[in-house]
């Protein structure tokens, strides 16, 4: 740390007695200066020879009788501590000027008119020269700026604050290694109090973020001005946003907690009021860069949750919701689980907030994703427009996960669940396994739903877009309406028939291609040909046996669900199933072998055998 020594005499003659400073030079004191609760018993000549203001006051208050004059300097910048140093300077005693006291000394010297008109090398010029040295280094500039808070009006008039901020902004945008600035060495400030809130984050950021910790020790007004100056100097938006989040995490303990109710950690209780924390949050949110992706979705969602807890202004919360919506595809599920902070708590999580965020996302990406539909684009354009479709698919998957989490809430109404589920278009879900899982959880948590409501709920999913695993689960799910189970079985049967047709078609084309290859003279050895033919037949037979087994299981499940003979007859006629007597079950293996050897016509299976 830089410092300057002034004066050559020892300051032992200047000592404190209770609330009184006395200069024991052997001469009686003839002037008393009162600063706050401290009185200074001094001599007129050393003071008036260095200060224009003190000279004026002494001349006005001194009488012809030579009595001691007394006056007050309660408004002097820096108070009694600073005036003590000035008094020593006037007596020519040794004083140390440091980055921690130079600002108050500079302001007090200006206040007392300690210019070159009252002695060469007076305090104004001395402190101004030292300030220039302070501004050349990062740590000293930070310390000087912190002390400006104590004498802010005077420091502003002398442009000390603006000069200090400009110096820091320039250094923050530069590489500290080029100038050998000592950074991150402020261990004495680790337990400091800033804005009245105790701090706990002590690690020093490294790399491009080396300046985060030091600037986070500033008060909010000075920090805000410094951030604006740094941004105007060309600092990367990512670094600016990172510093703002770092500052908030120091002074808002809620920013260091997970949003989910499953989080068991407890933040320290802040020492400031909720109103002060709310004001801090709203100020920082306004400073965040608007560029998409600069502030992570995780931090934006934590800011939003904190804003709800602190009852921030509607404009602040709307600002954060729009920011999250613009990059919702970058969010993760755990951060979306924002507890409901409303006065009339209906649901466990704030579903309405997520719905608004989703609406903001759709307003940005829905037009682009519709334009990027593969049905109306040429191949070259489709490649360039993949991003909207990818973002939409990611958000749909995220939404399905969120619905599965909130579906277990007994207070979540069917209308809210449905409105949230249909907020994304159907084409954004390649598979409906996620929405089926959420619907199943909702049915389990709401067993009192009527048949009509269950039917409405199940319309959210498309049975044709369920995977084999989801279809198998749905076919055995007793919570689903019978109509939905029938649809699942129908589409599964249709899928199996399509697969069988495809396999026979491929097999027939393969045989034709082998014949054509033989005619062109592409011969194989008889042993290899027989081996390949036998292997293909065995694979086909094995796959057909598996399909028959799956069809048999579907029939068995359907028989369990069907309660009357009439319902079974209707279903059999619809799907083309034939009822078999119990005695025919022993012939299933023979019929399977017969089907394997059945003839195909034009590459398609013989329908009569099915």
From TrEMBL:
PROSITE patterns in alphabetical order: BTB, NPH3
Which pathway is it part of?
Answer: Protein modification; protein ubiquitination
Which SMART domains does the UniProt record give? BTB
Q: Which domain of life is it from?
A: Eukaryota
Q: Name one GO biological process term.
A: protein ubiquitination
Q: Where in the cell is it found?
A: Endomembrane system
Query: What sequence ranges are listed for the domain BTB?
Result: 29-99
Q: Which residues form a coiled coil?
A: 537-564
- Does this entry carry the keyword Coiled coil? yes
| Cellular component aspect of the GO annotation | endomembrane system
- Output the Gene3D superfamilies linked to this UniProt entry: Potassium Channel Kv1.1, Chain A
How is the protein disposed in the membrane?
Peripheral membrane protein
Start and end residues of each stretch annotated as Disordered: 516-537, 578-610
| Residues of the NPH3 domain | 209-495
Q: Any transmembrane segments, and where?
A: none
| Entry keywords, A to Z | Coiled coil, Ubl conjugation pathway
Composition-biased stretches, type Low complexity, lie in 583-596
**Keyword Coiled coil: yes or no?**
yes
The entry's family comment says: Belongs to the NPH3 family.
Name listed for the protein in its UniProt record: BTB/POZ domain-containing protein At5g03250
Q: Which organism is it from?
A: Arachis duranensis
């Amino acid at each position: 740390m830089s410092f300057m020594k002034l004066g050559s005499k020892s300051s032992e003659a200047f000592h404190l007695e209770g609330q009184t400073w006395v200069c024991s030079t052997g001469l009686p004191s003839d002037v008393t200066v009162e600063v706050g609760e401290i009185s200074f018993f001094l001599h007129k000549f050393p003071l008036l020879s260095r200060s224009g203001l003190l000279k004026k006051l002494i001349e006005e208050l001194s009488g012809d009788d030579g009595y001691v004059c007394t006056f007050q300097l309660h408004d002097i910048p820096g108070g009694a501590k600073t005036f003590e140093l000035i008094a020593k300077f006037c007596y020519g005693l040794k004083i140390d000027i440091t980055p921690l006291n130079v600002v108050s000394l500079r302001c007090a010297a200006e206040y007392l008119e300690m210019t070159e008109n009252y002695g060469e090398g007076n305090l104004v010029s001395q402190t101004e020269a030292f300030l220039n040295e302070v501004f050349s280094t990062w740590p000293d500039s930070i310390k000087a700026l912190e002390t400006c808070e104590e004498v802010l009006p005077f420091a502003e008039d002398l442009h000390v604050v603006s000069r200090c901020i400009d110096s820091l902004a320039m250094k923050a945008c530069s590489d500290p290694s080029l100038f050998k600035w000592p950074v991150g060495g402020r261990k004495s400030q680790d337990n400091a109090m800033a804005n009245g809130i105790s701090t706990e984050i002590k690690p020093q950021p490294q790399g491009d973020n080396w300046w985060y910790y030091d600037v986070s020790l500033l008060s909010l007004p000075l920090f805000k001005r410094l951030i604006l100056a740094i941004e105007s100097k060309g600092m990367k938006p990512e670094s600016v946003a990172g510093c703002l989040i770092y500052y908030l995490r120091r002074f808002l303990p809620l920013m260091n907690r997970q949003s989910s109710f499953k989080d068991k950690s407890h933040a320290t209780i802040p020492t400031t009021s909720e109103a002060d924390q709310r004001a801090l949050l709203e100020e920082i949110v306004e400073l965040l860069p608007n560029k998409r992706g600069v502030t992570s979705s995780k931090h934006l969602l934590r800011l939003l949750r904190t804003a709800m807890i602190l009852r921030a202004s509607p404009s602040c919360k709307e600002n954060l919701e729009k920011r999250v919506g613009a990059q919702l595809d970058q969010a993760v599920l755990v951060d979306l689980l924002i507890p409901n902070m409303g006065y009339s708590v209906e649901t466990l999580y704030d579903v309405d907030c997520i719905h608004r965020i989703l609406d903001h996302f759709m307003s940005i990406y829905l037009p682009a994703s519709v334009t990027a539909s593969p049905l109306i684009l040429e191949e070259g354009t489709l490649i360039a427009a993949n991003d909207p479709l990818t973002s939409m698919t990611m958000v749909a998957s995220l939404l399905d996960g969120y619905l599965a989490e909130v579906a277990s809430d007994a207070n979540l109404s069917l209308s809210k669940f449905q409105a949230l589920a249909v907020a994304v278009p159907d084409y954004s879900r390649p598979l409906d396994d996620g929405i089926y899982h959420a619907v199943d959880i909702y049915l389990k948590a709401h067993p009192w739903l009527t048949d009509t409501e269950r039917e409405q709920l199940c319309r959210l999913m498309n049975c044709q877009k369920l995977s084999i695993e989801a279809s198998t689960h749905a076919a055995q799910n007793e919570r689903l309406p019978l109509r939905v189970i029938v649809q699942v079985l129908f589409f599964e049967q249709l899928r199996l028939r399509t697969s069988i047709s495809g396999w026979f078609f491929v097999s027939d084309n393969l045989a034709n291609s082998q014949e054509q290859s033989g005619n062109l003279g592409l011969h194989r050895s008889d042993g290899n040909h027989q081996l390949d033919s036998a292997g293909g037949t065995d694979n086909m037979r094995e796959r057909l046996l598996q399909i028959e087994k799956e069809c048999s299981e579907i029939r068995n499940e359907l028989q369990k669900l069907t309660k009357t003979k009439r319902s079974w007859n209707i279903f059999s006629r619809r799907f083309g199933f034939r009822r078999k007597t119990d005695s025919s079950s022993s012939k299933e293996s023979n019929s399977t072998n017969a089907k394997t050897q059945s003839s195909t016509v034009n590459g398609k299976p013989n329908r009569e055998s099915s």
